[in-house]
């Protein structure tokens, strides 16, 4: 079960509305390396993990990613607050206005809708943890690109926080991968199946 | 109005919750680090205190009964919501 906490993980502030940047940062909402993809990827992989530690870590990072998704949503909400159709069009986001007005939608920065193809689950713990480490690096890189694309110090501050969390998650997944590998070598199993000689 | 006070009390919770999140993830991969477990328990204790003070004033932080009692009218359905603050 999940319980909703009526609070962001960290406050989200902006200096001024900026629909043009909202159009870019939406990729961390519904893009391939965004927070929706991250949370679903990790929560979904729990069922094929061999150790309690791995199940715990995927539960916790998956849950934190849901909180990051909410921070990105809050950021987009604020960046387009008060923007009228002309503002949206001038920002290159007329298509958003036409289809969604101020409603949020799961797309990347190019308007491509979210797809389950963005997440992987091979059911092999080594493969899936390695996938997650790559995913964290891709998210980190995307945040770096986004930080380059805004000059609002408040927005940069939020993005830097999220950037830093990806670095921590990468570290924890690396430790988890080592632990799972050790566990599997002791169990004389590979990929959850007994080795047949 | 009261929003300033609410935001500053919430910020104190967010700060301590971040300590708890970070230690929680660390402990998931370092379950025998006694010092970190002590730090985690300390953070939980502080967090409980701060949450109680906030909830006494502004109503439940968590839904479904996890956030304590409600005054009248039903406090859960009152803004501001997190993305509006
Ligand atoms: Fe992450």
Automatic annotation (TrEMBL), chain A:
Query: Which superkingdom is the protein from?
Result: Bacteria
Q: Does the keyword DNA-binding apply?
A: no
GO molecular function term, any single one: catalase activity
**This enzyme's EC code(s):** 1.11.1.6
Keywords for this protein: Calcium, Manganese, Metal-binding, Oxidoreductase, Peroxidase
Q: What cofactor does this chain's UniProt record say it requires?
A: Ca(2+); Mn(2+)
Q: Which InterPro entries match?
A: Ferritin-like (IPR012347), Ferritin-like_SF (IPR009078), Mn_catalase (IPR007760), Mn_catalase_dom (IPR039377)
- Which residues of this UniProt protein bind Mn(2+)? 35, 65, 68, 136, 169
The record's annotation in SUPFAM superfamilies points to: Ferritin-like
Q: Where does Ca(2+) bind?
A: 60
Q: Does the keyword Oxidoreductase apply?
A: yes
User: What's the record's note on cofactor binding?
Assistant: Binds 1 Ca(2+) ion per subunit. Binds 2 manganese ions per subunit.
Coiled coil segments of this chain:
none
Protein family per UniProt: Belongs to the manganese catalase family.
The name under which this protein is listed is Catalase
Naturally occurring in which organism (per UniProt): Pelosinus fermentans JBW45
TrEMBL record, chain B:
A Pfam cross-reference name: CotJB
Q: Which segments constitute the Protein CotJB domain?
A: 8-84
Q: InterPro entries given for it?
A: CotJB_dom, Spore_coat_assembly_CotJB
Out of the domains of life, which is the source?
Answer: Bacteria
Query: What is the protein name for this chain?
Result: Spore coat assembly protein CotJB, domain containing protein
Lineage of the native species? Bacteria, Bacillati, Bacillota, Negativicutes, Selenomonadales
Species the sequence originates in: Pelosinus fermentans JBW45
């Amino acid at each position: 079960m999940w319980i909703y906490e009526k609070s962001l993980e960290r406050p989200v502030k902006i200096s001024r509305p900026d629909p043009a940047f909202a159009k870019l940062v939406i990729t961390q909402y519904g893009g391939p390396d965004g927070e929706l993809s991250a949370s679903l990827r990790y929560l979904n992989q729990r069922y094929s993990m061999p150790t309690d530690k791995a199940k715990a870590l995927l539960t916790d990072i998956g849950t934190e990613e849901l909180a990051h998704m909410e921070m990105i949503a809050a950021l987009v909400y604020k960046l387009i607050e008060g923007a009228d159709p002309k503002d949206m069009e001038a920002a290159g986001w007329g298509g958003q206005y036409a289809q969604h007005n101020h409603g949020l939608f799961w797309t990347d920065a190019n308007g491509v809708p979210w797809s389950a193809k963005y997440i992987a689950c091979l059911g092999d713990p080594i493969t899936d943890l390695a996938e997650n480490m790559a995913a964290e690096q891709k998210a980190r890189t995307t945040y770096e690109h986004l930080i380059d694309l805004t000059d609002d110090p408040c927005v940069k501050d939020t993005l830097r926080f999220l950037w830093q969390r990806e670095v921590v998650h990468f570290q924890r997944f690396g430790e988890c991968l080592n632990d799972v590998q050790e566990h599997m070598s002791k169990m004389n199993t590979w990929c959850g199946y007994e080795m047949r000689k | 109005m009261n929003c300033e006070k609410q935001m500053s009390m919430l910020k104190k919770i967010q700060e301590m919750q971040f300590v708890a999140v970070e230690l929680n993830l660390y402990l998931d991969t370092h379950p025998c680090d006694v010092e970190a477990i002590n730090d985690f328990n300390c953070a939980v204790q502080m967090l409980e205190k701060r949450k109680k003070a906030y909830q006494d004033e502004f109503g439940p932080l968590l839904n479904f009964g996890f956030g304590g009692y409600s005054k009248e009218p039903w406090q859960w359905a009152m803004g501001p919501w997190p993305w509006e603050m």
